[in-house]
Design brief:
7 strands; globular; seven-stranded parallel sheet; alpha/beta; Rossmann fold; single chain
Length: about 260
């Protein structure tokens, strides 16, 4: 049974709904035996306290969107998770841009813990630019996960993504335990492995998922990854790191490519 390396990304610098959901998802996936990297710009005390044993914490150590995207691109190129799940509009856009800079090699699942409309309202004067970026980048997401049908409609409208790739799957953890239910966890795992095209994972229905029925999970294995808070990224290399990884782009090349893509936006 194979262990898969998965990555979760949040960019909020405080304990938000997205952060709590990703902490719960990371804990559940690790408990099932997968290697999970939780990627953040910079860790804070509350996040570290909520981190489950075995989840690797990866700090990008950045303060601007530009350096954040570059650091995330390097992480993807070096460590090649089978899938990257980002949560929140800003995180989703950064993840999709990093995926492009990494030559589309790691599939991205964009997750919204709240409605896209509420995130755009909160963005104020930046909303127009965010809408344009959503329309450009969301079609390149493997899936968009939302908490409600209303949020799904908004994601389709703003992001221009077809209905078959928008999935309603509430990921709110239990208020008492802070954990996801087995149903939530297995549904999300099945979707992540399907997006990664892992052999044995349940394929997507041609009619999309609602998600209300059980999804089959791929094989699971036991693992005990060590906690890493040293930045991007100093954990020990594995065969996945050293064998199939493509050459890294230089910092200058990444910045030039990022500037070109920014001009197109």
């Amino acid at each position: 049974m194979k262990t898969h390396r998965m990555a979760l990304l949040v960019v909020a610098r405080q304990m938000t709904l997205e952060t709590r959901q990703m902490l719960a998802l990371a804990a559940g996936l690790t408990r099932l035996g997968h290697e999970v990297d939780l990627i953040v710009p910079q860790a804070h005390e509350e996040l570290i306290e909520g981190l489950a044993h075995g989840v690797r914490l990866v700090e990008l150590g950045v303060h601007t969107e530009l350096t954040g995207v570059l650091a995330l691109t390097r992480y993807l190129a070096r460590h090649r998770p089978c899938v990257l799940l980002s949560s929140g509009l800003e995180a989703n856009l950064n993840a999709l841009k990093a995926r492009r800079l990494d030559r589309w090699r790691v599939p991205v699942i964009a997750h919204h813990a709240v409605t896209p409309a509420s995130e755009l309202v909160a963005a104020g004067s930046k909303a127009r630019g965010l809408r344009r970026r959503m329309a450009l980048k969301y079609p390149h997401a493997a899936l968009v996960l939302v908490e409600s049908d209303e949020a799904g409609c908004q994601a389709r409208h703003e992001g221009g993504i077809e209905a078959t790739r928008v999935v309603t799957l509430p990921l709110a953890p239990d208020e008492e335990t802070g954990a996801l239910s087995e149903h939530q966890l297995m549904q999300c795992l099945s979707l992540m492995l399907s997006a990664a095209e892992v052999e044995g994972a349940s394929p997507f229905s041609s009619q999309g998922w609602q998600v209300s029925s059980g999804g089959a999970a791929a094989g699971l294995a036991q693992s005990s990854p060590s906690l890493d808070t040293s930045g991007v990224v100093s954990r020990q290399a594995t065969s996945a790191d050293t064998g199939a990884s493509a050459p890294l782009m230089s910092s200058a090349s990444l910045q030039a490519e990022l500037a070109n893509s920014g001009a197109r936006e």
